[in-house]
Structures are given as structure tokens and as C-alpha cells.
Design goal:
The complex is a heterodimer of chains A (233) and B (297). By secondary structure, chain A is mainly α. Chain A has one domain. Chain A contains twelve helices and no strands. By secondary structure, chain B is of the alpha/beta class. Chain B folds into two domains: 217 residues, Rossmann fold; 58 residues, no CATH class. Chain B has eleven helices and 14 strands. In chain B, 40% of the residues are buried. Classes of the chains: A mainly alpha (233), B alpha/beta (297). At the A-B interface, helix 1 and helix 4 of A face helix 2 and helix 3 of B.
Chain lengths: 233, 297
């Protein structure tokens, strides 16, 4: 994996405005939390922290790939020794780091030092990886930002299952909870919650395994074929 | 360095084959021009050799490695400049070159002398979004050669360049070949092909219609004859209604065979106002037209 690619991707995230978008959303989240009663803020905070990797990594990875497609840089990238997997891992890593920083800033704005950093980092890793892979795979298939915004809605809804369970689980059938917990975004929310309250280690471990399995499956069955198709374009 | 044998390829759901059993080889130090009209199979062949298209039949190897097995090591020895020079618009020219160079193992050239030689040193630290097409074409070449590849794939490298910059590009290509690189050059620019290539192949409808050195092709497709050009006499100007004033007058054609003993030719040489003697070789433009039936765009 290339350090130059890592640095260039971060530079591009900044110059394309993705990093600014993260900062703006973080400021917005902090402002919303500051006006909520403490109990409400504590209830909302895990969802906000989870949305950073789950949603932003998904959309920004897709948008970033769409920008590459629009600029036509893939052809030169694919003609170089750079492995597509390295390229996509760097994108996911950069977005995951930004997500983690954003979640940490929002948490600090609401709770001061009263939260754990490592679960937030785990939330970014286990949420950001499958979300970024899914976003990149869809963008490679859909090929433009507009089509990606529309075509990615079903995947977005799947990613949102844990949030639905968190907000309205008591009104949903009992089978919904386990499905949401084992969905691609489930581990990320479990770790986000663990940043503020104690969580069973078994639940976190199971979520981590599910997220790793989702990441591997998406990379193998969605991303790799999408990369091969894009390579021949 | 590049060896293609019985190569055929059909795109999925396409009616016919895009490439139909072509054969050619490019040796180290050789500039090989791949010429043909749009849709003839040039880009498909290049994509196969770059390892981007699989599922072909026949053989296509670079450095002895089959293109269908192209991996990072295979691509490490290749430099490619595509017809449409695509870069990260929000990175500077130098940032783009350094980023792409970082993907290749081994030592790289200092890009600055290349920027200077190609006349874009002043724009090196400007974002590519501000570059003109000609500047991007030159940047494209820098990106392709910066890691000193053993094989260079260049697609229309002089497109959009003024004659002076086109000449610098051709000089760089020739230099890389003289240093041992095999150059696969795809172009519609017959003058560039003529000036740069050791051999050219004309591909028509997926098949190679002719392949040889430009001079040999021009002889083969031209007439084995010469004409003598002289300053026009008063009778030539009058015959042309005065319109030919200032233009050279051409003699009848003299066959090359037996030219030294051709009394009429020798007499023509002795007439006053001799400007020169021309062979009636064909041009690559003419060969392109006769082989493809299509005018150059």
C-alpha cells in the first residue's frame, strides 16, 4: 500500500470538499446535541457517532469513486501496478479516519471526556469498511453521482437497519433485532453504543465477526466483479 | 518484448470479432506504429496488451508474460499514455506525476527536467484543471515515462500539440526507444508515424492489412518511377493559363528500372532550371486511404 496514495487521497478528500463536509456535519451535530436535554442527547449520540462511518463512508466512498470515473483516472490507475484492492482500502481507511475524528469531536462536544475512544475507533473500522466497499462497488456499477444517489437507496436502507432497530425496536417483531445486529452496519452501532455505556463483550465480538464477514463478502462478490467490469471499459 | 500471435477478441454480445487473428512483434528499442481508422481494433489490442481485457484467443505477451495473467509485476514494466489524458483535476501537475510514479517500484526520474523540456515547467505547481489540452498531453507523456518503463504504450501522443512540442514528444519517444524501450504507438497522425516509427502496421476491420517499415511500405504502394522538377518555362505558365506561375513543372515519369541508361531522363536532367528529382513513393496517408478506404480524420 502506498503512503503517497494515502496522502494524495487525503489531499483530494480535502480539495473536493469531503473533509469540509465532515467538519460542517460535526458542527451541526454538536449544535443539535447542545440544545437537547442530557438524556435525549445521550440517547441520540450513539446514532450520530454510528452514522459517521455507516452513512458517510458509504456515500463519500461512492462519490469519491464517481469523481474518479468522471475524471477518467481509473484507466491510468488500472494500467499501473497499483492493486485496486489497495486503492479501495486507502479510500476506506481515509474515510474511516475522518469518521472517527468526527465521532470523537461530536462526543467530546456533548460529554467532555466521558466516553471511550477505542469503541469509536472500532465503530469506524467495523462500520466504515463494509459501508465504503459497498459504496465503491455500487458507484463502479452506476458510474455517475446522480445514478449512485438514486441507485444506492436499497443498500442505504440495509445499512440503516440497526438505526431502525435502535429507535423503534420495541415496536418491531422479535426477529428484527438479530437481523439488524448482524447486518453490515450492526457492529458499528454496537461499538458506538459501547463508547458511552458498557456493552457485553460477546455481542461486540459477534458484531465484529459479522462486519468482517460482510466486508469480505462485499469485496469478493460485489467489488471485485465491479472492478473487473470497470477495468475493461 | 511484445509478441502477438493469432490474437482474436470479441466483446460480449457483439456480432463479430473486434480483433481477428492478428500477429506482430515489437522488439526492444523499436517504435512500432499501430495505425488504422476508428473502430479497427487498435484500442482493443492495446487493452489486451495492458492486461485490461481478458477472454481473448491466441497469444499476447509482454516480456514473455501472457497478458491474461497481467498482475502488478507485469504492469510495473509498462508505461501508458492514453489518447484522452485524464488526471486528478484538483492535484497539481507535479502532484499527479508523483502520485502515479509512486505506484511503480524502483527508481524514478526527476520529473522537473521533463516538465522543462516539454515547456510546462511554469505550470508544474498549478492544478491540472487549469491545463490546456496540449499541456495535459505533455503531462500524459511525463506520467508514462517517469518510471523508465521497458514497454511504452502511447495513444495519439502528439494530438493537440503544436509542431514544436510535437517534435519534442517525438524526440523523447525516439530517445526512450534508443535506450531499449519497446514503443507501441497508436496514432492517426501519419506524419508523426512516418517520423517516429521503425515499423508500422495498418489494422483494418480487426486484421492487419500491411506491416513493414514506413519507407518499405511507401515503396511498395508507390510507383517505381521518378519525375524531374524544373522551374516552369514560359510555355508551362502559358499552358496553365498563368495559374502555375511560381510552381515547379514536372517532367513525365521515368521508370526506376534502367534509369541510368534512360536517354530521355538524362536529357531531362540537362535542361535548364533543374529543381530536383522525386521518387513517386506513396505517402502513409495514401497507403492508409487505399487500405482502409477512409479519409484520415
Amino acid at each position: 500500500m502506498s503512503a503517497a496514495l494515502f496522502a494524495a487521497d487525503l489531499r483530494l478528500l480535502w480539495r473536493h470538499g469531503f473533509a469540509i463536509a465532515y467538519l460542517v456535519v460535526a458542527a451541526l451535530y454538536a449544535a443539535v446535541l447542545s440544545v437537547l436535554p442530557r438524556a435525549w442527547a445521550d440517547a441520540v449520540l450513539p446514532i450520530l457517532a454510528w452514522s459517521d462511518p455507516a452513512f458517510f463512508c458509504f456515500f463519500f466512498a461512492g462519490a469519491s469513486v464517481c469523481l474518479d470515473l468522471a475524471q477518467g483516472t481509473f484507466r491510468s490507475l488500472f494500467a499501473s501496478p497499483l492493486r485496486p484492492s489497495d486503492y479501495l482500502i486507502v479510500k476506506a481507511l481515509d474515510l474511516g479516519i475522518l469518521s472517527f475524528a468526527m465521532a470523537a469531536i461530536v462526543s467530546a462536544s456533548s460529554r467532555g471526556a466521558d466516553f471511550s475512544l477505542w469503541p469509536l475507533a472500532a465503530s469506524a473500522a467495523f462500520g466504515g469498511a463494509p459501508a465504503a466497499m459497498l459504496g465503491a462497488a455500487l458507484a463502479l456499477r452506476l458510474k455517475s453521482v446522480n445514478r449512485f444517489m438514486m441507485g444506492s437507496i436499497p443498500a442505504f436502507l440495509v445499512l440503516a437497519l440497526p438505526a431502525l432497530d435502535y429507535a423503534a425496536g420495541r415496536y418491531l417483531p422479535p426477529w428484527f433485532g438479530p437481523i439488524a445486529a448482524l447486518s453490515p452496519g450492526g457492529a458499528s452501532l454496537a461499538f458506538a453504543r459501547a463508547a458511552y455505556t458498557a456493552a457485553p463483550a460477546g455481542e461486540l465480538a459477534l458484531g465484529a465477526l459479522a462486519a468482517a464477514a460482510w466486508t469480505a463478502a462485499i469485496a469478493r462478490f460485489a467489488l471485485a466483479p465491479a472492478v473487473n467490469a470497470a477495468r475493461g471499459d | 518484448m511484445i509478441r502477438v500471435s493469432g490474437l482474436s477478441f470479441a466483446y460480449p454480445r457483439a456480432k463479430g470479432e473486434a480483433v481477428r487473428g492478428i500477429d506482430f512483434a515489437v522488439a526492444p528499442g523499436e517504435v512500432f506504429g499501430f495505425l488504422g481508422p476508428s473502430g479497427a481494433g487498435k484500442s482493443t489490442t492495446q487493452k489486451i496488451l495492458l492486461g485490461s481485457l481478458r477472454g481473448y484467443s491466441g497469444s499476447a505477451t509482454v516480456g514473455g508474460v501472457e497478458a491474461s495473467g497481467a498482475d502488478s509485476r507485469y504492469r510495473a514494466g509498462i508505461g501508458a499514455a492514453f489518447e484522452f489524458p485524464c488526471f486528478y483535476q484538483k492535484l497539481t501537475g507535479l502532484e499527479n506525476v508523483r502520485l502515479f510514479a509512486s505506484f511503480y517500484p524502483g527508481p524514478k526520474e526527476d520529473p522537473r527536467p521533463l516538465f522543462e523540456r516539454l515547456g510546462i515547467a511554469d505550470a508544474m505547481d498549478r492544478r491540472v484543471a487549469e491545463y490546456s489540452k496540449g499541456m495535459r498531453m505533455r503531462l500524459n507523456l511525463i506520467r508514462a515515462v517517469i518510471h523508465r518503463p521497458r514497454v511504452l504504450f502511447l495513444d495519439e501522443p502528439t494530438s493537440g500539440l503544436d509542431p514544436a512540442n510535437a517534435r519534442v514528444v517525438r524526440d523523447i519517444v525516439r530517445e526512450r526507444a534508443s535506450e531499449g524501450a519497446a514503443v507501441f504507438l497508436t496514432t492517426h497522425d501519419m506524419a508523426a508515424a512516418d517520423a517516429t516509427c521503425d515499423r508500422v502496421a495498418f489494422i483494418v476491420d480487426g486484421r492487419i492489412a500491411a506491416c513493414d517499415a514506413p519507407a518499405a511500405l511507401k515503396r511498395r504502394y508507390g510507383k517505381r518511377a521518378v519525375v524531374v522538377d524544373r522551374e516552369p518555362g514560359p510555355e508551362a505558365g502559358a499552358a496553365a493559363g498563368g495559374s502555375a506561375a511560381g510552381a515547379a513543372a514536372a517532367s513525365p515519369e521515368f521508370p526506376l528500372d534502367g534509369l541510368a541508361d534512360d536517354a530521355a531522363f538524362l536529357a531531362e536532367l540537362r535542361k535548364p532550371g533543374l529543381l530536383g528529382v522525386r521518387t513517386l513513393d506513396s505517402s502513409l496517408d495514401g497507403i492508409f486511404l487505399s487500405l482502409t478506404g477512409k479519409e484520415l480524420a
